[in-house]
Amino acid sequence: MTILVTGATGTVGRQLVAELVQAGHVVRALTRDPGRAALPEGVEVVAGDMADPDTLVPAFDGVTAAHLINFAGDDYAPLEHGDRIVELAVKAGVQRVTVLGGRADGPLERALAATELEWTLLHPVEFMANTLRWWTHSVRYEGVVKEPFGDRLSAMVHEKDIAAVAAVALTETGHGGRTYTLTGPQALTTREKVRILGAALGTEIAFVELSEDEARAQWRAVGMGEETIGFLVEALGNTPEEGYTVVPTVEQVTGRPARSFAAWAAEHADAFRA
């Protein structure tokens, strides 16, 4: 049984590859740059791009199950050729598919729904790993987190838990036709996240709550476009109920509790140290 993992060098993809390898499965990893993949020994690394379906033809050959992402490129643009990707998967004899998404269902999801494949849609809320992207520099060099909406709640999920659910859905029956919302075990405010990260580091991290205008200016200063900034203001300032409502899906699917943000912070503490 060969399992294809697309987005294999991404936040979730790396964890999924490791999870499957540890369980003894044969893994083929798709990446746009195999030379920089740095994946575990024994993983078959192949070149391909979700934005170019023709590059997936050899990747699907001999594959029984496939983990797909519903975006393409570094800008996370929605896939434009989801129907073609599904057509290739069906033609190759793929039987089971997971899709990492979260946005509104697009061509990929709609095409899967019209097939007899065992498909499972994974809709994680905010990744705990986003903390690395947004906070590492300011915590490491200034000992501070500067963000708007300090009291907003998020039921953040550990990237390893997303991968664990995907691994189960790819290798076991009973998950076809399901859409899984994935959260961590608790909803935390931004202020609470700062406190927990500080505890993991053994030091106090200051929190400065920015106004919306200050946040926009900070994001522009690091090169963000206005569309992305507008999305962040809406997502952080008006987080949908799904984003802060804890659900037990991780434990129900994997048989063990979802990992906490405190556990994530302890694992990644060195990244925040000067």
Describe this structure in words.
This protein is of the alpha/beta class and 274 residues long. It is built from 12 helices and 13 strands. The protein has helices spanning 11-22, 57-60, 82-92, 107-113, 130-142, 159-171, 190-201, 212-221, 226-237, 241-244, 249-254, 261-268; strands at 2-5, 26-31, 44-47, 63-69, 71-72, 77-78, 96-100, 118-124, 144-148, 153-154, 178-182, 188-189, 206-210. The strands form 4 sheets. It has a 7-stranded parallel β-sheet, sandwiched between helices.
Task: Record the SSE blueprint.
Layout lengths: L1 E4 L5 H12 L3 E6 L12 E4 L9 H4 L2 E7 L1 E2 L4 E2 L3 H11 L3 E5 L6 H7 L4 E7 L5 H13 L1 E5 L4 E2 L4 H13 L6 E5 L5 E2 H12 L4 E5 L1 H10 L4 H12 L3 H4 L4 H6 L6 H8 L6
Helix pairs in contact: 1-6, 3-4, 7-12, 8-9
Shape: globular
The main β sheet shows up as: 7 strands, parallel
Question: Whole-number radius of gyration?
Answer: 19 Å
Mean pLDDT comes to: 94
Assembly context of the chains? single chain
What percentage of amino acids are in beta strands? 15-25%
- What count of helical segments does DSSP give? 12
N- and C-termini, Cα separation? 44 Å
Number of strands: 13
Q: Give helix and strand order, one letter per element, not per position.
A: EHEEHEEEHEHEHEEHEEHEHHHHH
| Overall SS class | alpha/beta
Q: What is the compact description of this entry?
A:
The chain is an alpha/beta fold and 274 residues long. The protein has twelve helices and 13 strands.
Name its key features.
two-stranded antiparallel sheet, globular, alpha/beta, 7-stranded parallel β-sheet, 274 residues, 12 helices, 20% strand
